[in-house]
Design goal:
The chain is α/β, with parallel strands linked by helices. It is built from 15 helices and 13 strands. Helices cover 38% and strands 16% of the residues. The longest helix is centred in the middle third of the chain and has 14 residues, at 136-149. GO terms for molecular function: hydrolase activity.
Length: 377
Amino acid sequence: MTARKTTAAAASPGASRPAELSLPWFWPVDAALRLTQRNLDFLSQAAKITRPPPPGWATPNTVRLDLPTMFLREFGTAAAGRVPVLIDAPYAGHSATIADYGKGQSLVETMLANGIPHVLVTDWKTAEQEMRYFSIDTYLAELNAAIDDLGGVVHLVGLCQGGWLSAMLASRFPRKVRSLVLAGAPIDTDAGDGPIKQMAHDMPLKSYRDMVRLGRGLMPGRFMLAGWKNMHPAEHYVEKYVRLYQNLADRNYLDRTEAFAAWYENPLNLPGVYYLQAIEQIFKENRFAKGEFVGLGRRLALKDVTCPLYLLAGAEDDITTSEQVFAAEGLVGTPRKRIEKALVPGGHIGLFMGRKTLSETWPGIVRWIAAQDGAAP
């Protein structure tokens, strides 16, 4: 396949946002336990608003692969003797550009600047009608195909929901993952006592199924966006406009606001089968952590993950609590001496695009990744 060059202009740097602005894709409404057909019809209509242009990529890249589920984006160039780094971005209702958000707020930029010559990102596509039956197996299979195209071995970096998919890949094909970084990744969804865990068990599965039915087999991004906003109505319908009015003369503030809106106001649709499977089997039943999830024909066990492992969590992250991330240490087969952990200040999306974490924590993670190039699989 011929690579297509993209030269999207760098997005304006965005300010760090509170964790609640990145609530996960499986909490689509405020009154979750009182969903009705009327509620869903209202959300569908209310969310049909004018949106800003979609976000761009901050760093020039090429599309190495165009697969049904994703564009595999390539940054930098391959180097002899170096294993490529594949960032598995969240497939959670928002664009994968969170991994390359803007100058000074880009994980891709941080990796390239700290000695990783070849970085790739899974740019997951919004689901169209023909994708409604795609399952977790579909995404595992195409992630595996991307790794094969890169030579069959990668350093895998899983962000948020991309973390459990990456851990599944490392469990199913352990020799293909030289090292694994899990950042804000919910591996044991029963761990800790965060609000997301409680909501996962409280909201009936029928409510999720009703939304997918209304989306004709998809979980529409517009439903999720309206629901996220309704969970914090004062922030989205009052306070942000007050701040905007107060900063009309601040061009830098306006640029940051526009950049964030481009990312936040352009949600992705998700395949209904994938979405409901993740809700029921990962977040309600916690099958992966229990060794009961079946992926690509085999029961997956975290103990089959034996590569060097780095776990990164946010101290104020109420989307993926640190307990859900760090629980992986006791579930994987990697020896304890080959596991590194870091708990950093801040919330969820700050783990991937916060200036402080990118400048102070990720350079050390990048050096750790590079040191694993010669490690035996």
